[in-house]
């Protein structure tokens, strides 16, 4: 490569600084959850039972698998097996889309039951239940937005690998998109038990 | 870690092993949530989630193989979050 030396470490540190702000963003929402959980424990527990654990568990497995595929795609790129790397990224994209489809059905089902922000069902019910579902919609919507952004980044990375612009020696785009995707997975790792599994 | 731009290549086997552990922990957290442990349930859920998160961070996100800048700045972020959490709970519980 005769191209000017890129500061890959600098690029990576920049990405991590951004990820720290994401951690604080979701961290803040989880604190909100924790404070209200302490205040309305019984309401939260009964509202949590209304969420379908099967959906939540399926989406957990899908996201974990997609994270594995992205991590493997970086290994493939560094081993200079470009085709395999692209296939793995696209596999992760497929998983992300499956996650969104699941989420669509899950939200649709809840909205069909009259459970959506400011719905009469929630407003007239227990305050704790209203807050639980308010947080559920806020956090899963923000997380869903991150999934869409992550998918966009992964698709761009796949195109750039295909074009030969992202390579084993210049892999920052795939690396950083991957980091973002793993963060989205990381957030879900906490969302799943807190919303779907609380007893 | 002499060369900062040096890449670390994780083997597919190792990544698959991490993925396997994550799946097992997911099964464990679901199973534990169905046993009534009282207040311990929420702590078990958070502990297992933290373990899964650590696996993702250390291996999928390569933190284990990063230099001191990313390692310590990451820990500083966690510390900031911990301070934020503890002060808010301090405030909420003694109102």
Concise overview:
The complex is a heterodimer of chains A (199) and B (95). Helices cover 82% and strands 0% of the residues of chain A.
Give descriptors for this structure.
heterodimer; A: 199 residues; mainly alpha; Four Helix Bundle (Hemerythrin (Met), subunit A); 7 helices; B: 95 residues; 3 helices; 73% helix; flat
Describe the structure.
The complex is a heterodimer of chains A (199) and B (95). Chain A is an all-alpha fold. Chain A has a single domain, classed as Cytochrome c oxidase, subunit III, four-helix bundle (Four Helix Bundle (Hemerythrin (Met), subunit A)). Chain A is built from seven helices and no strands. Chain A has helices at residues 8-39, 41-48, 53-78, 82-112, 120-123, 127-162, 172-197. The longest helix of chain A has 36 residues, at 127-162. The radius of gyration of chain A is 19 Å and the shape is elongated. The mean pLDDT of chain A is 94. By secondary structure, chain B is mainly α. Chain B contains three helices and no strands. In chain B, helix 1 (12-33) packs antiparallel against helix 2. In chain B, 21% of the residues are buried. The mean pLDDT of chain B is 90.
Write the SSE topology.
The complex is a heterodimer of chains A (199) and B (95).
Chain A (H helix, E strand, L loop, with lengths): L7 H32 L1 H8 L4 H26 L3 H31 L7 H4 L3 H36 L9 H26 L2
Helix pairs in contact in A: 1-2, 1-6, 1-7, 2-6, 3-4, 3-7, 4-6, 6-7
Chain B lengths: L11 H22 L6 H21 L7 H26 L2
Helix pairs in contact in B: 1-2
């Amino acid at each position: 490569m005769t191209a000017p030396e890129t500061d890959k470490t600098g690029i990576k540190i920049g990405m991590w600084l951004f990820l720290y702000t994401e951690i604080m963003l979701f961290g803040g929402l989880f604190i909100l959850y924790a404070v209200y959980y302490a205040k309305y424990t019984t309401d939260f527990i009964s509202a949590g039972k209304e969420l379908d654990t099967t959906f939540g568990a399926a989406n957990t497995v899908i996201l974990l698998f997609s994270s594995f595929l992205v991590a493997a795609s970086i290994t493939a790129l560094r081993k200079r097996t470009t085709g395999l790397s692209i296939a793995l990224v696209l596999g992760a994209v497929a998983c992300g889309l499956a996650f969104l489809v699941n989420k669509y059905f899950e939200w649709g089902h809840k909205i069909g039951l009259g459970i959506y922000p400011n719905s009469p069902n929630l407003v007239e019910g227990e305050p704790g239940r209203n807050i639980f579902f308010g947080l559920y919609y806020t956090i899963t919507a923000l997380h869903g937005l991150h999934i869409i952004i992550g998918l966009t980044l992964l698709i761009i990375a796949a195109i750039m690998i295909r074009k030969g612009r992202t390579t084993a020696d210049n892999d920052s785009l795939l690396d950083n998109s991957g980091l973002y995707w793993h963060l989205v997975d990381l957030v879900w790792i906490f969302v799943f038990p807190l919303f779907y599994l609380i007893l | 870690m002499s060369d900062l731009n040096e890449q670390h290549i994780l083997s597919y086997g190792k990544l698959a092993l991490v993925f396997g552990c994550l799946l097992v922990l997911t099964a464990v957290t679901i199973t534990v949530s169905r046993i009534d442990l009282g207040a311990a349930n929420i702590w078990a859920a958070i502990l297992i989630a933290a373990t899964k998160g650590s696996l993702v961070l250390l291996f999928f996100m390569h933190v284990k193989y990063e230099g001191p800048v990313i390692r310590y700045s990451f820990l500083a972020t966690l510390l900031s979050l911990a301070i934020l959490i503890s002060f808010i709970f301090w405030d909420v519980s003694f109102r």
